[in-house]
Design a protein that fits this description.
This protein is an alpha+beta fold. The protein is built from 3 helices and 7 strands; from the N terminus they run βααββββββα. It starts with a strand and ends with a helix.
């Protein structure tokens, strides 16, 4: 199991960035690797289950495992067959705009391949 951390800063306020995370239907608007999301709730919350549909139409099941709205952080687990990727997101205020971090835990080769795509999504997430 490997760990990798990504960061991005942008002009969007922390409240806007958190709303983009919290409202599941918004994920495809800033995350190009997510074409569609089907979930059993409109907002993230511990225990929410669903499927993210990625390019090629592949559906990846996910479960939100923790949410802390006060800290603006949340964790979810995404699966591809027997392989699991744990993603922990957090939003921070910055002098101007906000920052976001993503800690990824999973197989090293998967993290290496996913990091560039995730970096693009994070930059779009915090953009105005």
């Amino acid at each position: 199991m490997a760990v990798r951390r990504l960061r991005a800063r942008g002009q969007a306020s922390p409240a806007v960035v958190w709303e983009r995370y919290e409202r599941i239907a918004l994920w495809p608007t800033w995350s190009p690797q997510i074409w569609r999301v089907e979930a059993d709730a409109p907002r993230i919350g511990a225990g929410v289950h669903g499927t993210v549909v990625v390019p090629g139409g592949l559906g990846l099941p996910f479960t939100v495992t923790a949410v802390d709205p006060a800290a603006r952080s949340w964790t979810w687990v995404v699966r591809l067959g027997p392989v699991a990727l744990t993603l922990t997101h957090a939003v921070q205020a910055a002098a101007v705009g906000s920052g976001t971090t993503l800690m990824m835990e999973g197989p090293g080769a998967l993290l290496l391949g996913y990091a560039p795509v995730a970096g693009v999504a994070l930059r779009r997430l915090v953009a105005r």
